[in-house]
Amino acid sequence: MSDAPSTSPSDRDVLEGTGRHPDEWFAFLDMAGASKWQHAEFLSWFEVNAGHVSTEWAESVTARYAAIRGLTISK
Fold first, then answer.
1. How does pLDDT run across 18-55, given as a tens digit for each residue?
2. Which of 34, 43, 62, 64 is a Cys-bridge partner for 29, taking CB atoms 3.0 to 4.6 Å apart?
3. What are phi and psi of 31, to 5 degrees?
4. 3-state secondary structure the chain
5. Local confidence band at 6 (pLDDT 50, 70, 90 cut-offs)
6. CA 50 to CA 58: how far, in whole Å?
7. Distance from C-alpha of 69 to C-alpha of 63, rounded to nearest angstrom
8. By three-state DSSP, how is residue 52 classified?
């Protein structure tokens, strides 16, 4: 799978699309202090730390992270 689907991807989809399970991404984001970030900061973090991840997957992981952590991320 090369692009994130328009519906919420499964854990397996995320693993196959990004090379990591969502829980791994969430742990990395927590360690980086992402709970206080705005949208652009997430995309910058993915660009610097996970350049192999497409923008679509970065957006998908960010949206899931925000939902699970109860965050509102403004663009």
1. 999 999 999 999 999 999 999 999 999 999 999 999 99
2. 34
3. -60, -30
4. CCCCCCCCCCHHHHHHHHCCCHHHHHHHHHHCCHHHCCHHHHHHHHHHHCCCCCHHHHHHHHHHHHHHHCCCCCC
5. low
6. 9
7. 10
8. coil
Intra-chain end-to-end CA distance of the chain, in Å: 26
Q: Which residues contact 14 (CB under 8 A, 6 or more apart)?
A: 20, 21, 22, 25, 57, 60, 61, 64
Residue 5, pLDDT score:
45
Q: Is 54 exposed, middle or buried (0-12, 13-18, 19+ CB in 10 A)?
A: middle
- In one-letter notation, the amino acid at residue 57 is W
Specify the amino acid at residue 11: D
